[in-house]
Amino acid sequence: MSEQLTFDDWDEKKVAALMEQHQDFVDILKWAFSEYGDEIVYSCSFGAEGIVLIDLIHKVNKSAKIIFLDTGLHFPETYGLIEEVKSRYPTLDIKIIKPKISLVEQEKWYGEELWKVNPNLCCHMRKIVPLKEALVDVKAWISGLRREQSLSRSKIEYINKDGKFQKIKICPLIHWTWEEVMTYIHLNKLPYNPLHDQRYPSIGCAPCTQPVSEAGDLRSGRWADSSKTECGLHQT
After folding, report:
1. Residues within the annotated binding site?
2. How far is it, in rounded angstroms, from Cα 158 to Cα 169?
3. Which domains are delineated in the chain?
4. Residues labelled catalytic
5. What residues are designated binding site for [4Fe-4S] cluster?
6. What is the pLDDT of residues 18-28, one digit of tens each?
7. What is the DSSP string of 51-76?
């Protein structure tokens, strides 16, 4: 067994010891970049959690690799935010990852508005497959998942064995609340998606994202008209 923690060399005792040693988000990020070097990437959706993580990652590794899964269906505000972030953090290696199938080809082969007819297939082609390809040359990836977001995310740990992509998945913000995320953004005067101020706490593709009610669940605006609750990136 190698000393480095990988999917194939997953060691429960080692993971428990690591999480005992690194009990906050900064420690976990420092460990992650020390452990994996250039073989770790942050997959960022550029939501509020993403902005916080980009700022924290920049403090730890100013040349870190960051990818954005561009489905071609995001809000204009999201694309505008990405350009702001690139200007603010010019040393970060931010790459835009696009699916091999264009929206025109998708409509030709699967019909109009596939996200309404078969949202799981749409997410698979435009998000899951591109991320799988983007993770080929790395051993670990970082995600902005928080336990508060949903029941399905309530058990995530700082360090996770990701069966979906057969990588190690690092989640530094698991204990953060939505209020803490936004407070960090405002205190540090970070750019963020203006849709967050219009009752969009979770922002994905424009056709599949709606504002939430005042008392709504943080992710209730995603795929609101269907039973779908996840894009599939974080499901095994």
Report:
1. 122-123, 205, 208
2. 8
3. 12-208 (3.40.50.620)
4. 231
5. 122-123, 205, 208
6. 988 888 999 99
7. HHHHHHHHHH-TT-EEEEE--S-B-H
